[in-house]
Design brief:
CATH topology: Methane Monooxygenase Hydroxylase, Chain G, domain 1
CATH architecture: Up-down Bundle
Radius of gyration: 19 Å
CATH class: Mainly Alpha
Largest sheet: none
Helix content: over 70%
Number of strands: 0
Number of helices: 8
Length: 207
């Protein structure tokens, strides 16, 4: 019986490199997105399409591994939800880059910094999942850090909206496009926070 279990348990190990690869795609996409936000370089949007496609491939590998494995490190539904939420981050980044084309007059460097921090924290947190029973406190700190970045994003958005409305009284369509972009960027950080919360819940359920 013990030998049979040992043959099954290594199947779990295959998941963690796949999780890490998916998180790396999110960070790479975040770097590209920030280039678009800060400099409005539309050529970078094509790179985001590539990262989204690569992320979809990474997600497919995770789902295939779920189907092939009898033993999984976490509940199958939790793995699926985490994978879907991370892929949604990639899809949202591509959508934001396209929204950027129609918005101007809004400064986004500070927002970009927060997005990069979120992506870096998420990637580092996902890497800890392999030792989640020993790194639960570190994973909780990751959740708290991203939660703090979300609060900072909300304050930044409010300040940016006040400035935007003060400057854009003569061009309501431009103001609308810029405010929509600010909302989408804020929603992206909210989604990072949701993913961090889900990872924390996943760990709590298994520690």
């Amino acid at each position: 019986m013990a030998n049979w279990l040992r043959k099954l348990m290594p199947q779990q190990e295959k998941f963690f490199p796949l999780f890490n690869d998916h998180a790396a795609k999110v960070e790479q996409a975040a770097i590209r997105l920030c280039t678009v936000l800060e400099s409005d370089r539309h050529a970078e949007s094509g790179e985001l399409d590539r990262h989204v496609a690569e992320g979809r491939d990474a997600a497919t590998k995770i789902l295939d591994q779920i189907r092939q494995s009898f033993v999984t490190p976490f509940d199958r539904s939790d793995i699926k939800e985490m994978t879907a939420s991370m892929q949604s981050l990639l899809e949202d980044m591509r959508s934001i880059a396209r929204t950027r084309r129609h918005a101007s007059g809004v400064k986004l460097a500070a927002f970009s910094s927060l997005i990069l921090e979120c992506a870096g924290e998420l990637k580092a947190g996902v890497a800890l999942l392999e030792d989640f029973d020993k790194r639960a406190d570190d994973l909780r700190r990751m959740r708290d850090k991203i939660g703090g970045l979300r609060i900072r994003m909300l304050a930044l958005r409010e300040d940016a909206m006040v400035e935007l409305l003060a400057q854009g009284a003569g061009d309501p369509m431009a103001t609308l496009a810029a405010s929509r972009l600010l909302q989408r960027v804020s929603d992206l950080v909210e989604r990072f926070d949701d993913v961090a919360d889900h990872i924390d819940d996943l760990v709590l359920d298994h520690v």
